[in-house]
Amino acid sequence: MKLIKATENDIPVIQELARRSWENAYAEILSDEQMEYMLTTMYSKEEISQHLKSVNYHYYLIEDEISHSLEGFIGYENDYEEKTTKLHRIYLVPESKGKGLGKEALVFLAQKTKEYGDRRIILNVNKFNQARKFYESQGYKIYGEGVFDIGNNFVMDDYLMEFIIHI
């Protein structure tokens, strides 16, 4: 796996990878209307551009070094809270699942988190998303839950998960 720091020029690629992965991950969880609303707001050019301008927000494209194809991306924010990095986004296209890319991306995130001086990684995961089991298999634990109003009469019903970095 190769991680490539994303730039403004990569926004269309991030949008396309998000759509491909979401259509698979959320097909049975979210309505088509909610999925479209979230993709067009959370992955708008303006939204991603704002993230890329922030010194603490990072996007990396995930490339399969064997096929040289882009398989997904990770987006995270260091110093989100005191000593905490937030994993906002990690998505892989359906055909890349099972290749170990997600595990490698989380190892990369843990290394980066240490480099920033943060000691904890947090994330939100939809309560019905099978990714929760993946995170648990990688040492993440549920520490809470929340229902978040995201506008347009839609909510995100999530578990809050954390991973503690051991020094």
Quick take:
The chain has helices at 11-25, 32-42, 45-53, 101-116, 131-137; strands at 2-5, 57-64, 69-81, 84-92, 120-126, 141-151, 154-164. It starts with a strand and ends with a strand. It has 167 residues and is an alpha+beta fold.
Notes on the structure:
A seven-stranded mixed sheet has the order 1-2-3-4-5-7-6, with helices on both faces. The protein contains five helices and seven strands, in the order βαααβββαβαββ. The relative contact order is 0.16. 35% of the residues lie in helices and 38% in strands. It has 167 residues and is an alpha+beta fold. It has helices spanning 11-25, 32-42, 45-53, 101-116, 131-137; strands at 2-5, 57-64, 69-81, 84-92, 120-126, 141-151, 154-164. The longest helix has 16 residues, at 101-116. It starts with a strand and ends with a strand.
Please render the helix and strand layout as text.
Layout: E1 2-5, H1 11-25, H2 32-42, H3 45-53, E2 57-64, E3 69-81, E4 84-92, H4 101-116, E5 120-126, H5 131-137, E6 141-151, E7 154-164
Parallel strand pairs: 4-5
Antiparallel strand pairs: 1-2, 2-3, 3-4, 5-7, 6-7
Defining key terms:
alpha+beta; 167 residues; 35% helix; 5 helices
Radius of gyration: 15 Å
Q: How do the helices and strands follow one another from N- to C-terminus?
A: EHHHEEEHEHEE
Mean pLDDT: 96
- Helix fraction bin: 25-40%
General form: globular
Question: What's the quaternary structure here?
Answer: single chain
Given the structure, what is the number of helices?
A: 5
Fraction of residues in β-strands: 35-45%
Main beta-sheet strand count, sense and barrel state: 7 strands, mixed
Residue windows where pLDDT falls under 50 for at least 5 positions: none
CA(first)-CA(last) distance: 25 Å
The overall strand count is 7
Please state the structural category.
alpha+beta
Widest beta sheet: strand line-up = 1-2-3-4-5-7-6
